[in-house]
Amino acid sequence: MGSGLLIRGGRVIDPANGVDRECDVLVIDGKVSQVGEIASSAEGAAERVIDARGKIVAPGLIDIHVHFREPGDEEEETIASGSGAAVAAGFTSVVCMPNTKPAIENETDVEFIHRKGRQTRKTHVYTMGAVTKGREGVELAEMGFMADAGALGFTDDGRGVQDPAVMLRALKYAGMFDVVIAQHCQDDSIGGKGVMNAGYYSTILGLPGIDPLAEEAMLWRDIQLVKKTNVRYHAQHISTSGSVGLIRQAKKDSLPITCEVTPHHLLLTEECCTEYDTNYKVNPPLRRAEDVEALKEAIAEGLVDALATDHAPHLQSEKELEFLAAPFGIASLECALGLYVKALLEPGIVDWPGLIRLMTSGPAGVIGIDKGTLGVGGQADITIIDAGAEYQIDAGTFRSKSRNCPYHGWAVKGRVEKTIVGGEVRFEL
Amino acid sequence: MAVVLDAGQIDRILGELTAQIIGASERGVEIAAIGIRSRGEVLAQRLSGRLSEALKRDVPCGTLDITLYRDDLNSPQGHAQPQVRTTDIGFDIDDKIIILVDDVLYTGRSTRAALDALIDLGRPRAIRLAVLVDRAGREFPIQADFAGYKTDAGPGKLVQVNLVESDGKDEVVID
Amino acid sequence: MAALKRKGRQTKWGHKHLLGLRELSREEITYILDTAEGFEQISTRSVKKAPPLRGKVVVNLFFEDSTRTRNSFALAANRLSADIIEFTKKSSSVSKGETLLDTARNLEAMGIDIVVIRHEAGGVPKFLSRNIKACVVNAGDGYCEHPTQGLLDVYTIRKIKGSLDGLKIGIVGDIAHSRVARSDMWAMTKLGAEVILVGPPTLMPGEVGRLPVQVSYSLDEVIEQVDVINMLRIQFERLGGNPFPSIREYSHYFGLTVERMKKAKSDILVMHPGPINRGLEMESEVADGSNSVILEQVTNGLAVRMAVLFLVNQAAAMKV
Lengths: 429, 175, 320
Description:
heterotrimer, A: 429 residues, alpha/beta, Urease, subunit C, domain 1, TIM Barrel, 2 domains, five-stranded parallel beta sheet, 14 helices, globular, B: 175 residues, Rossmann fold, three-stranded antiparallel beta sheet, 4 helices, 8 strands
């Protein structure tokens, strides 16, 4: 008798292994032991049997772009509160961004994040490290030490690496290690002081704009650098149709380039800013409807590797500031699945296996971890989803410390019922 | 709805008012007519014409908008939102006898507002009140110096003055 | 007053805030202008005061330097017998510490009735109006709107030209960073004028083609056609970067010179929201010339602001 778990009769969707059928999953000692029709005689091995009939049984969901604000802004979010929110949303692994205070820029910082994550015992918590010291874009941070300590990649997220020479150096140097360099593509000399997309709405609202060119110029530049260095590169939260075009060409050219898309860039447009509600202030900014369409098309085409929330919690008091002064960010981790269902599944852009791939093996591939599948022998991170369950998003009940969620009150479909991390049920409805 | 004054009666009353005003006016003191928007304005123009003719000299005429001086500006006004219009008095009111003209004197509140508005424009020698209809129901200690038709129409009634210039015909009706 | 009741007048002004002109209809703008006419004479008589805002408290909440607009609002409030509190503060973009909302709620706790606000950030008046009970009047927010300036501009034009219908109006200068240009544009086009924005492409706002206006980069071409020319002030503090190579070159292409004025219609109105950078946007001879209505704009501003204060207060009373 081991610490077994038998999940009976669910629709098992494991895109990485081409599985989509009704069957059982047996977990023994925290690992996937068997996927298929399991005889009732095996029930003895299981401490617990979960009836998953009518539910989807998927590999644990992975979000490679979250901000848990620790260290530095613990009043907004902590690794404990953030991973509590994550596990309730079906995520079994998350990757924290290094723009904390101070920034994650050496192995001690990386170990701190990992330790806090382990202590919380909710999800696996990973982190990226900063590309440059203090995310200032000048001197390289200690990427080697951080990679050795388990950092899964590097980014100055919140800001792009502005200086092309520094970026070139970072890519070259990263070539020593098997890591990905991720970039928040935004050229500050073009987009610098902007607070929303530059265009008609920024004109009539009298707010400084961030031109789509700011994103596209940096992405284009980075693609040229990647051509030279051939180091893995990940474009974070792409938001414009121009970026989609660049990614399409880069993939055609077989460059080692991946990209992610957020729920807000799939569901909201710049027009949402007309009431100056700072819950719609996000960076990269909400773009035009044409951009949203281009991103959806990119997903349909298979150009997008991962969906990522860019969960960016902020205090109510900070979001109660004037639009110009309020911080960027949307807290959406806890309702992510429902949002993706609304944005992609309901309009028929992806089917369930397609959606699950973008939330599991896709992101795992970007950061190079052996997760996101239900392969036998792998760690048993499993999410059980009630695809038909409809509910109303209520930011008031979030486990996250922050409430800056523009989706409050939205009705969505697709609810996480159980989240199993390393064979342990860490969340159930 | 009852017509209490027709065009002929209104014309006769204006003649009487003119005579009364002339009878009461001091020799050597200039007089001027100022009407309260909007029916008082029309009546003041007619009176100033008659007075000019009778006195063989020009009796100037002006229009007073009292909206800014009303006492109900900060009370809920429902849909009867008073509109601020221009006050149009093209002469100096100092040391003149001002004949303040309104269509109906009822609660006295409009007159009170008009008095305050006039005082802000200067210091007339005297202000006299002339009205076409003097209706019972005063809420302020204000009386007309020259009153035409008197009525004690109850509080539920509507006394309506129609004039050719603004309404197409001369008549006073009680509803 | 019986006269008012019997006509069953409809409410023509129902807004307890004046946030911008974009959201107002032609009728509403016209109503403000008509009302302002009734306020003009207060400033010309011996007692320059009327009582409609007696016992009301107006706060001039200015987070950005301004003498002209602040004084104009203060005088307007005074002439309507309101009490006025001056509150000038440099805005801070710090995200922690006392917020704008704290400041406003503190003022509100003192029992204010109308907040006149100027702020460097677009949308602040709207944001405030959602969060406090007092009336909010926008005295300029970022480069979004400056509605009372827009109103006084169209008031001035209407007073002289009778109507804006069919007029051609040029607005020249830093359109991108100008709240005056935006408020003018909304008011003028709603009142039937044709607006041409003039300036270098680097000072045009994003997707200007979607606005209900024409765009020109040549003042020489525009000056010949227009009935009114509004010269914006070059606001060095807002420019940022280097949108034109030099002041010399800017003046050469976009300055209103005596020479250029020779090509204009003889009855063209020359406007400027002030304060003028003499010799930059406009030569002194033009600013002080016979076509200039710059000082009339200032005078009319007072009547317009009185009307606005009166109307928002009236709308607030109506909704009690």
